[in-house]
Amino acid sequence: MEAQIFLELALTGAxxxxxxxxxxxxxxxxxxxxxxxxxxxxxxAEDLTIKMAIVTSMSTILFTSVSSVRTHQKLGxxxxxxxxxxxxxxxxxxxxxxxxxxxxxxxxxxxxxxxxFVSFSAFQMFLDKKPKPTRQMPGFAGQLGMGGLIGLLxxxxxxxxxxxxxxxxxxxxxxxxxxxxxxxxxxFPIALANVTGFVISGMKLENLPAWSLGYIWLPGMAVIAxxxxxxxxxxxxxxxxxxxxxxxxxFSFLLVFLAAYMFHKGFQAA
Length: 270
Prior knowledge:
This protein has helices at 3-23, 28-41, 46-74, 80-104, 107-127, 140-157, 162-171, 176-201, 218-239, 244-269, and strands spanning 212-213, 216-217. By secondary structure, it is mostly helical. It has one domain. Strand 1 and strand 2 (216-217) form a beta hairpin.
């Protein structure tokens, strides 16, 4: 691996890890644009570039989420009752995304879908609308459906689910710090289910770059994961020192920037 690519991946991992801890993000919203840029410069076909960036991003969440959630758990921010309620739906939605939809959908459409849902999440967080005081998280059936939506969308855009789960939980009057901590915990089942499906569905692909496992670019996964697990605890601690409104503003501005980039990538690949 060239020194410049290593440094770019290392910096990405360090920033992603911190933001994963700070905002409950698995890091996919930041990694997908960076990885698609790096893979494109390596000569990988545009459509495959977007798909490999999404999957490689998802694979690193296996490591980032564990590091992040340990710190959130120590600070008492993880709602394990919600993790148990949402996880079954997440597994179902992730399987549908990684084994079926992702394989047949073009990379350009995936990039635009990424931009669309990230833009919606940014808009909701920026408005900071207060939910009705009486609104609560739904029961088993509702959480099953909510988890399915989180798993499906996360698998299609390579994110840990925070861009969907944090707004949904805060809309149901879950405190922002609990929503972020719980989202970090949900990142592991999301990544595990999706990565398994992506490896299976991508094993017969041709013209992959060196050191690829299905859709996963292993060097990118390894370097980003190593640096992100170091910085994730620092972000998690910072999340409990910042006021709620500032957290939401940081979240929304970050999402707007990344959505714009992926819209651009989608139009280029179309």
